[in-house]
């Protein structure tokens, strides 16, 4: 059993709520990669995927208000909804969806970024949030990229490598990130696209210059 006291989270540093938003958003965007034909899967998995979609909608629609409410120390419905989406909703998605609602490219990009020491100061969910943008670029989902870039700018989640203190023009550093992200064990290989260092580099560059 998990007991959640919203006032504790209300008084915590906002970076933790923001990272939770980013990591939980990935539930949906990675699930649709892992389960492209959900109608063929067991009901429990479909329930998990449906929950991931519902959580996505709550986070995209309510996070800006929730973050503002936290800043103003106001315990509101929007704030509680976002907290519940992250903790209760995220747990339900993982429990019901099993391997179909776990990790894909967004988490692999996070793992790649961890090879650079300057990214250590950024929380897991913050880097995963950026990873969703790279995954969207790899899949050619410009509509998703536009929607999330606009949302991230309102929430103050990173939309560029520069915001994670990584220079897109530093080839040595980008090569390290790419090599780690594309390791055979990484979940990026669940994507239904051909992956090479060049395609991943192009995705990073697309995200870096993308305008919502």
TrEMBL record:
UniProt signal peptide: none
E.C. code: 1.1.1.6
EC class of the enzyme, as a word: oxidoreductase
UniProt key word Oxidoreductase: yes
Gene3D superfamilies noted in UniProt: Dehydroquinate synthase-like - alpha domain
Keywords: Metal-binding, Oxidoreductase
SUPFAM superfamilies: Dehydroquinate synthase-like (SSF56796)
Single GO MF descriptor: glycerol dehydrogenase (NAD+) activity
NCBIfam families in the record: PRK10586.1 (NF007880)
Family according to the record: Belongs to the iron-containing alcohol dehydrogenase family.
Name of this chain's protein: Iron-containing alcohol dehydrogenase
Biological source species: Escherichia coli
